[in-house]
Amino acid sequence: MHFLANPARFLRIARPATGWLLGIGILLTVIGIVSGLTLTPPDYLQGETVRIMYIHVPAAWLGMLGWASIAAAAISQLVWRHPLAAVAGRAFAPCGATYAAICLITGSIWGRPTWGTWWEWDGRLTSMLILFFLYLGYIALAASERERGGEGRLAALFGLVGAINLPIIHYSVLWWRTLHQGESITLTGTTIAPSILWPLPLTTLGFTCLFAAAALMLMRAELAQLRVEARIRREARA
Amino acid sequence: MNQWAFVVAAYAFALVGTFALLVWAYSSMRRAEAEAEKLRTRQ
């Protein structure tokens, strides 16, 4: 990670990586979605609506990955004072917020035909909604600190404290058994039939590449803005 | 309601959201890098 502490070195890697991630992400996402909509059978209980899984699960994963990345960037900033950590944290936030919102909306749409309701104050749904609000708070706090010329330490602390919500989201289906189903996919196996499951890794990997491409583009945008601001300051002093 | 209506609505939200994020990130990057390049070549 310290290898990337130099912004020029980071940009040498980020520029080609952005295009590759975009290309691979679009390809995998399209293949996964088309396969999920046309090649897999309907579920014996849920029918066709099971196909929402191919976008809902990646969105949930990316909503949580976004905040885990913010927390990792926060540790990197607070402990090692990594010069790109605050920039990375600010770039991950809108990407994670977008996928947390997609997860909530697609989950709600999936819930209506499956549970008979658009929303329930269930442990998983509520903790995911809290994650979305945490993102909004982080974005506002980080933007305000950046505007005041701060280093972003307050936002980093907020990112670390907010990470407490991640295990709560993960274990919510075990702690509060209400409406949301329990864990279908674990490290040791899955309860989903292989004939239905197989497009899920494709869409998950595809959306993850798109998430990474968006985060890299936002980091590049902020680094360019910082260069402009630094130059304007230098010119003003001269 | 037809089950496919729910599937189409969910996919529409996911794809529009992802597309909007990518377009916003790309336009922010292009604008900022063009501005930085303009300042650099002005010197």
Task: Report a brief summary of the structure.
Chain A is mainly α and 238 residues long. Chain A contains eight helices and no strands. Chain B has one helix at 3-42.
Could you outline the blueprint of secondary structure elements for this entry?
The complex is a heterodimer of chains A (238) and B (43).
Chain A (H helix, E strand, L loop, with lengths): L6 H32 L14 H28 L4 H31 L7 H25 L5 H10 L2 H11 L18 H4 L1 H39 L1
Helix pairs in contact in A: 1-8, 2-3, 2-4, 2-5, 2-8, 3-4, 3-8, 4-5, 4-6
Chain B lengths: L2 H40 L1
List its salient traits.
heterodimer; A: 238 residues; mainly alpha; 8 helices; globular; B: 43 residues; 1 helix; 93% helix
- Provide the gyration radius of chain A in Å: 20 Å
Say how many strands of chain A there are: 0
Instruction: Give the distance, in angstroms, between the N- and C-terminal Cα atoms of chain A.
Output: 35 Å
Residue-averaged pLDDT of chain A, rounded? 93
How many runs of DSSP E, i.e. beta strands of chain B? Answer: 0
Q: How large a portion of the residues of chain B is in β-strands, by DSSP E? A: under 5%
What overall form of chain B do the CA principal axes indicate? rod-shaped
Largest sheet of chain B: none
Number of domains of chain A: 1
Spans where pLDDT lies below 50 across 5 or more residues of chain B: none
Number of domains of chain B: 1
Number of helices of chain B: 1
Structural class of chain A: mainly alpha
Order of helices and strands of chain A: HHHHHHHH
Q: Biggest protein-protein interface?
A: A-B, 40 and 27 residues
- What is the 3D form of chain A? globular
Give the CA-CA distance, first to last residue of chain B: 64 Å
Main β-sheet description of chain A: none
What's the helical proportion of residues of chain A? over 70%
Low-confidence stretches of chain A: none
* Alpha-beta content class of chain B: mainly alpha
